[in-house]
Amino acid sequence: MKKIQMVDLKSQYAQIKDVVNLSIQEVIETTAFINGPKVHEFQKNLEQYLNVKHVIPCANGTDALQIAMMGLGLKPGDEVITADFTFAATVEVIALLQLTPVLVDVNEDDFNINIEAIKKAITPKTKAIVPVHLFGQCANMEAIMEIAKAHNLYVIEDNAQAIGANYTYKNGKKVKAGTIGHVGATSFFPSKNLGCYGDGGAIFTNDDNLAHTLRGIVNHGMYERYHHDVVGVNSRLDSIQAAVLNVKLPYLNDYNKARQNAAKKYNRAFKDIDAIVTPKVTYSCGEICDTCDCHVFHQYTLQLKGVDRDALVKHLNEKSIPCGVYYPIPLHNQKAYTDSRYNETDFPVTNQLVKEVISLPMHTELDDEQIEYITSTILNFIYG
Ligand SMILES: *Cc1c(COP(=O)(O)O)cnc(C)c1O
């Protein structure tokens, strides 16, 4: 059996090696390292794939979130509501811009931001909501957009984990994750569903004016050469990374399908096991099926019920099975983000999830033998 990896980038590269190498070589030969034609080409390709008017490539996903918030003109002291159960980057940029992060609890079924908790957290100072499409499936965007409209709030989608996922409206209409709110941000970190070979990110919007503002901000606030109209940053997608992404984008649907297939096999093995809750696909077709792409499984995350997680992690590691705990500490308990406005009773679900979740190997190259070994090792540990 091939050695099991949390993310197997090497085997994936092996299949596209010649094309990727050629594409990178082209950048080097032309020396168009910064803002070269590959970046523009990728921008256009991604706009088409997402069916969004504007893609603004940038240096990484954290920058994408920050630039989105700068572009919306959020001001120090403005309150921004986001999920307590996410990667720190989401809340980090809010704090960095001297906005006030307001963390709220998530749902037990899909790990995404809880709608009632958002409603309860709104104050006259609230200016934006940042839903995170955690682990590969969209938050309840229809409800979030309704709240935003009623309270005149911006919605910034953190789409770092869900690129290529569909969001299905109640009426059946499907759109790509990250293109529903006023602005979406994503990451091309190597292990993400569409990963480059270094850092990369992008911002999406259908708003022409906002797109114009954002294009200036990523480039030192310049709209005309050496005229700096606003304070910007230097956040560019490297041409070499764009060269990799251009090759990989046409495979994104297949990559996501491979993840869904692996998830389906995991689900089957853990079906009707009381100690294990498998990930639920919600707000869309209601199940993992061949015809929908509503969950793209950036992570495959289980909730363990009455199982000693630390012992299981140790056991898996001894059996050469990597695994992860995303995320072990709620953001409201992180030193940098504590706030006297929070009570522990505000976060019952997050407080529970951090103790119960475990993420299994998930990538595009998992084979049946590996999945069978992983699932039987887990079941043997629990019932063995
Ligand atoms: C990866 C990630 C980011 C940050 O992306 P980088 O490219 O690493 O800066 C932000 N939010 C979430 C939810 C992520 O998973």
UniProtKB/TrEMBL annotation:
Q: Does the keyword Cytoplasm apply?
A: no
Q: Which GO terms describe its molecular function?
A: pyridoxal phosphate binding; transaminase activity
* Matching Pfam families: DegT_DnrJ_EryC1
Keywords on record = Pyridoxal phosphate
Catalytic residues?
Answer: K192 (proton acceptor)
- Keyword DNA damage listed? The answer is no
One GO BP on record is: polysaccharide biosynthetic process
Identify residues that carry N6-(pyridoxal phosphate)lysine: K192
Can you tell me which family this protein belongs to?
Belongs to the DegT/DnrJ/EryC1 family.
Q: Which PANTHER family match?
A: 3-OXO-GLUCOSE-6-PHOSPHATE:GLUTAMATE AMINOTRANSFERASE, TRANSAMINASE
What is the protein name stated in its UniProt record? Transcriptional regulator
Biological classification of the source: Bacteria, Pseudomonadati, Bacteroidota, Flavobacteriia, Flavobacteriales
